[in-house]
Amino acid sequence: MLYKELEEKRGKVRRFIKANPKTTAREIKKRLGIKVEKAYLEGMREAFENANIKSLRNFKRKTRDERRKIIIDFIKKHPKTGGHTISKKTKINVCNAFKNIQEAYKFAGVKYPRKKSYEKTSEEKRKKIIQLIKNNPEMTSSEITKKAGAFPYRLFKDLSEAYDLAGIKWISGPKKRSLRIKNKIISFVKENPGATQREINNACNTHVQEIFNKGIFEAYNLAGVKFPFERLKLYGIGLREIRERANKFEEEIALKLTGFGGVNRLVRSKNGIADIVFERRGKKAIIEVKDYLAKPISRAQINQLNKYLEDFNCNLGFLICHHKPKKNKFLIGKNKIIILEDSELKKVAGFMGL
Asked: Is residue 262 assigned to a domain?
């Protein structure tokens, strides 16, 4: 290569590095069509020095002993670390310094934490995972990995294959979580017969009315515990004062709504009696009123309102209460349900697009 040509290539590389201080040899070759090693014998390090730019990377190659020392020091500080993490943190592939991860731990003088797992064959690990699934089909993949000492996704196509070999119907992650919550509620009811909905929700950190289709009644039924119906005589709608208060609240809501449109109260449908059928300028909405002071709005009430929407061939429903939950909007198919507080009645007309 002529000196003049060499200087031209070096000049192009220098200018490019100055304009792009984070560039790589690959990028230079792609953008300029120049191999850095052909312009500079010492490669990128010399190119950056020639351009008078401080590189963000260290182009000096480490010797094998230097790489080993870095990995050994890291293992001593983090004695339970795997090969992937070591490579990620040190920027050195373990297999470029040692035969394998076990040898790296041996040189570091640290007992390899996964020795038991490596002593087992793949077939033994597969059998272990299959047996774990048979014993507890609701076990999560992380629990299986921990107990089997092996990653199921390295031994099977996917977890469903392991379930097939175990003769167990595949259970997805969300389904497992749902079953666990259900079993937790059922166990709590068995241990605490007579527990209220609020007590169950607080103890199990959930909403029993959203977990079971029939709410607390279904939970009691599955637990094999008789529901204390006599309690209804003392609490809820069975109490005269509460029933009267609920009726008064419903009347107040209906009266306020007359200022915005037509109100038809207690309209019977195929699935029950809707509290209010509200109409304004040719548009219709179904409104349910709940006088709950402490009890939260449940999924059962949302589903019931949705049934009314289907009965009345309407796609907009409102649930009026004292305290709306964080999630106050629901979309079920084409039907939209919105939960509002009694102080937000003006929004009904707004949501109807009027």
From this structure: yes
C-alpha dihedral sign at 33, 35, 39, 40:
positive
pLDDT tens by residue, 150-159:
788 788 888 8
What CA–CA distance (Å, rounded) separates 150 from 140? Answer: 13
Identify the helix (H) or strand (E) that includes residue 242: helix 240-257
Residue 89 placed within a domain: yes
Within 8 A by CB and 6+ apart from 1, the residues are 38
What is the SS3 assignment for 205? Answer: coil
pTM of this structure:
0.41
Q: Do 111 and 161 share a domain, yes or no?
A: no
Look at residue 240 and give its three-state secondary structure: helix
Residues 6+ away with beta carbon under 8 Å from 123? none
Are residues 212 and 282 located together in one domain of the fold?
A: no
Q: How far is CA 263 from CA 76, 155, 280, in A?
A: 76, 64, 9
Domain hosting 14: range is: 3-50
pLDDT digits (tens, 9 = 90+) for 166-198: 888 887 878 888 888 888 888 888 888 878 888
* Domain membership flag for residue 234: no
Pair 208, 192: CB distance under 8 Å: no
The runs of H, that is alpha helices, within 258-337 are 299-311
82 in the same domain as 44: no
